[in-house]
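LOG
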Amino acid sequence: MALVVSVEVAKQMDGGNYSGLLAIEYCSSDLHSVGGLVPVIKYLRNSNARIRAKAADVVTTVVQNNPTSQQLVMEASGFEPLLSNFRSDPDLTARTKALGALSSLIRNNRPGVAAFRLANGYIGLRDALNSESARFQRKALSLIHYLLSESHSDCSVFAQLGFPHLMMCLASSDDSGVREAALGGLLELARDTTLGNRSLLAEHDRLRWLLRRRMESIRTMTPEDLDAAREERQLVDSLWIACYNEPSMLRNEGLLVLPGEESFEQPPDVAGRFFEPMRQASARRAPPVERSESGDETGGGMVLLLGPAPNGGSNSHSH
């Protein structure tokens, strides 16, 4: 069943009628075939922040696991208002929803990833990590993790733009989801085959201090807290091994795998868990984009990333 907003619902949405957005129906048709795609994209520029946020929700559902819908949204110029809302919407909820829609739109979508690079989308991700919203940070980190896992050149660019420092700061967050996702991003950078640990050398001492602090915190946890922190334990240990080529104190003291837990070979895909619905539908979607091997130490993606942003880079909501 594909999500559909009928033409009548789209008309109800006009004029700031938020209730119309809630009248979303499920049917066997697709959004484009009933003429609802263009109106929904239009509402991404609506003066009502709640309507902008809800429209982004609709786009998210439409494009998830659906390469055809991804292409239609790109062709209908849906990327530009989503990027604008993500980067500069004055309403934080609308910004967060736009980021979620962008994540779904460009995942396994080569033209979408290229457009994100050309539009300086990574600068928006950096701004999101600097925000005070844990939810916004988690969504940004999940997209960062995906991009890092897909392209060696992205690893180089992220390192050059200062993301390791930001992720080190977030690895001490009070929010466990942010903390784990930041550790996962750092681990992806440390394991990059073209950069190795060099992407973290500038902050090598800070990283060592951070990991030791996390391990000391884990050592003082109650059994219940230790169980809840299983993913963090595994990530901290894996990152320590990747950077320092020696077992962590968690492993040495028997805190890595507790009694009753199964051992593991690879750390969990913590940030990637936000995309679990996409994994479950993998059998129905197009083959994944192959990881690029063309990156080098100077950052093969820099030209794409640092190109001029589109003219619609600033939000043009009519208030």
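LOG (cont.) second protein
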Amino acid sequence: MVVIKSVRLDAGTSWFEEYEHGANHHTLIMVSYGKCVYWLEGEKVLLEKGDLLFIPGNMTYYGKCIPTVTHEKYVVCFQSSAAPLLPLVHNPKYCIWKTGKYELLHQRFRVLQQEWSERLAYYESMCGALVQEILTHLNREVDEGRPSALKEKHTSLMKGYIQNHYREKVTKEELSEVIGKSPNYAAAVFSEVTGQTIGGYVHAMRVKTAVYLLSHSQRTIGDISDYLGYCDPSYFHRVFKRETGKPPAQYIKDRDIPVH
């Protein structure tokens, strides 16, 4: 069982944190922008975008920003029950890992931080489940090791294609042509490396764009839905809420007001 103590989003160039005698909780960190540095029992660790860091409880450490370098990271402090949970959590050594599932885990951290900040009904259960999922993905990646260089190259090529075509229907057949392999190979490798299906990845990219447009433009929900390739606005609404935990209308309510 995971008991969350705090969830926060650090951003900027003035962050500093120190636990001279160790913390009474575990700490899980994911960097989503820039760089920062930690010293873990005297060992220097540089974190960059896509890096996950697990710091076990009672470990002495401190961390800080790199001068003039801005960064953004999610930080979760939690305690776990004495019963076996995941090997990673019961290892006294820290773990640093550059995840291949960045987009998936970034979305989970974003929802986690949102749930913790808004504190709606049952938010503690939701946050605990999200941390459990993130830790499971991390533990699996560490156990399985890194995908081969060829699989990572193929996945990078497929991601690049999707980034240029995510507003259209993207199929495994199209991606197979990009990497010169069979459709089934393309789908299997993409899922193995990213932790997402091709369709799930496309939806995530569309929703990321939708969040920006809902927050920083004057477009309507119907217009954005159509722009992103959703013929049915109600289906767009369901996908959006599943990915973000909020309906599109909530972002319109909080959107920037243009200055005239």
